[in-house]
């Protein structure tokens, strides 16, 4: 009987642990919600900055999946579908971005879908500018079937079926808007973006809001070898990258390094560089591997936590699969007519 009681008592403790982990979605005294971080930011580049739409391929469709804190039975899982299409005039591109965040143990879900538009301008033979905007509709809800409240716990560790707690968190609908810009050349890129400009209220716990998310990203690509012909596009390169994100009371700085030898890309990203005067963030080292095969790109990354708290909850797995198309003959014709707008040199994973 004692083992049965101990097992029953452990179940509420595990559920409370899941609830505590779910609290990581909210930060700060005002209970402000946070956006999830993707470990492959360039595979999910429109999530990073809407100005990336249409800058890597003529068109592309990417499906991404992230499973964070897997020791908590998939507590944080995110799926993203992204698609972009560059018009024949090479100046405009449209995109679609659909995100679903869910906590399988707690019952929290957030679905957000929206459109992206970007406009590209060639400043001179070396410099290009892209500006983008996004508008999205979101819906957030909490399921209560998996939640355990204090008045459901009996002295012997059993869980009662009913609670007097008021489950009054109705689904919340919201609109959010963002803008971004990118300056890039044959070997560098520098971008800035602002998301949730209107800081929509999510109605969670009465006060939660999506604070504005500001990010700056950039990098440089060193080419050791490059072949760019109608029949063949190959490179051997090294790309150091850097990024800074601020959302509400949270700040994050990351440094990355990507090595590409077509068709393979290997990368490492260190996230959580301490900033002067800022609280010490969680530190994570991410390993990235990607391969291109014809019209497909497949990327995988794994987060290795360098902080004890995150290590107890487990790392994170992330997968990305892209179907892309780049018309080499059309690109050669545009180069001949000096109508070609070059691709941004950022990594694809």
Describe what this molecule looks like in 3D:
- It contains 4 helices and 17 strands.
- It has one domain: monomeric porin ompg (Porin), CATH 2.40.160.40.
- The protein is globular.
- A 14-stranded antiparallel β-barrel has the order 3-4-5-6-7-8-9-10-12-13-14-15-16-17. A two-stranded antiparallel sheet has the order 1-2.
- By secondary structure, it is mainly beta.
- A hairpin with a 4-residue loop joins strand 11 and strand 12.
- Keywords: Signal.
- InterPro entries: PorP/SprF_Bacteroidetes.
- It holds the Pfam family PorP_SprF.
- This is PorP/SprF family type IX secretion system membrane protein.
What key attributes describe this structure?
349 residues; two-stranded antiparallel sheet; 48% strand; disordered N terminus
Topology, pairings included?
Layout: H1 2-22, E1 26-27, E2 32-33, H2 45-48, E3 59-68, E4 76-86, E5 92-103, E6 108-122, E7 128-142, E8 172-184, E9 188-195, E10 213-220, E11 222-228, E12 233-247, E13 250-261, E14 264-271, E15 284-293, E16 296-305, H3 308-313, E17 316-325, H4 328-336
Antiparallel strand pairs: 1-2, 3-4, 3-17, 4-5, 5-6, 6-7, 7-8, 8-9, 9-10, 10-12, 11-12, 12-13, 13-14, 14-15, 15-16, 16-17
Signal peptide: 1-33
Pfam families: PorP_SprF
Organism: Hymenobacter lapidiphilus
- CATH class identity: Mainly Beta
Examine the secondary-structure arrangement and name the CATH architecture: Beta Barrel
Q: Whole-number average pLDDT?
A: 79
Radius of gyration: 22 Å
Instruction: Give the strand line-up of the largest sheet.
Output: 3-4-5-6-7-8-9-10-12-13-14-15-16-17
Strand portion? over 45%
The major sheet is characterized as:
14 strands, antiparallel, barrel
- Contiguous helical run count: 4
Task: Work out the number of β strands.
Answer: 17
CATH fold title: Porin
Shape: globular
Separation of termini? 53 Å
* Topology pattern, helix = H, strand = E: HEEHEEEEEEEEEEEEEEHEH
**Any idea how many domains?**
1
| CATH homology group | monomeric porin ompg
Low-confidence stretches: 1-31
SS content category: mainly beta
**Percentage of residues assigned to helices:** 10-25%
